[in-house]
Write the structure tokens for this entry.
Amino acid sequence: MTDLTDQQAAWSLDQLTKSEFFHQKLHAWGMLEVAQRIEQVRGEKLDWNWEQLGISEQALNLIMHRGIKPVIVFAHPQVLMQISRAVSYYRMLAMVSQKSMKRVGLTGTRYERERSFPDEQAALAVAIHLNEIISQLVEADDQINPREFDLWRGMAAGSQAQGSWQNTKGSKTEAIVKGLLQRRLREKKRILEESANGLRMQLRDGRKVVFADEPDIGIYKGDEIMTAIEIKGGIDTAGVLERIGAAIKSLSRAKERNPASTTLLILQDVSLTPRAQEDLKINKDIVNHWFTVRDVLQDVNQREKLFDLLSI
């Protein structure tokens, strides 16, 4: 990276943090996975009653003329009932929000979670509503291109991610780091079971990961804490020592519960003032390791070092 002023560096990290948040949402919502599952559906085996499903004849003909499988474009109740998160796929294809679906009496947020499916009546209602919108969008484009469908879903996903970003409570940095670890655990298939909100994960090796407030992330073996992580995302230089002190206090409690536990602190670069670094060195028996947010997001080697310390 070229030399930047402190202000430019702060904005650069802010951009990276937001981009990583959006990237995490892409995976959290399973957008690629659900699209792949729908593409594999043998739509010709389904009973398509176009009119009853809210699909216009003109839109259908345009799709068929382009050699596009109808199931990729139009929602079928059986697909919604059998493929996890298919509701979100077609909702995003129609470029409508979860909130707007609720306002028309078709609340389907719960069906956009993994392993949650609508019943036949709800699936039909959702399919008809979304197909009517999608039909109008297709009709408005005589030269419809299959790649447009990815863009349509991407536009809706971006809008939804922006809303999630704005509504994130507490430290966005904390949300990013927690999301990074959650994605790592899912991608490495280390999870045996997890809570609906993803804040408690039972790992295959017998450990349990809890995303909470104190510590921000805790890894347990039975009831004994094995690893404690504190995340301090503040950038106010005036509060640096206060943040470091709060982190030391929180991690000291983990050490009291289990002196052999490993403790880690993740904080913003601006917090690593000479005085703060001195405090951390003095308290290295309490704060065993520390990383900056930039380390975790930009430095592959540092990120892998973090994962190694967590044995994930």
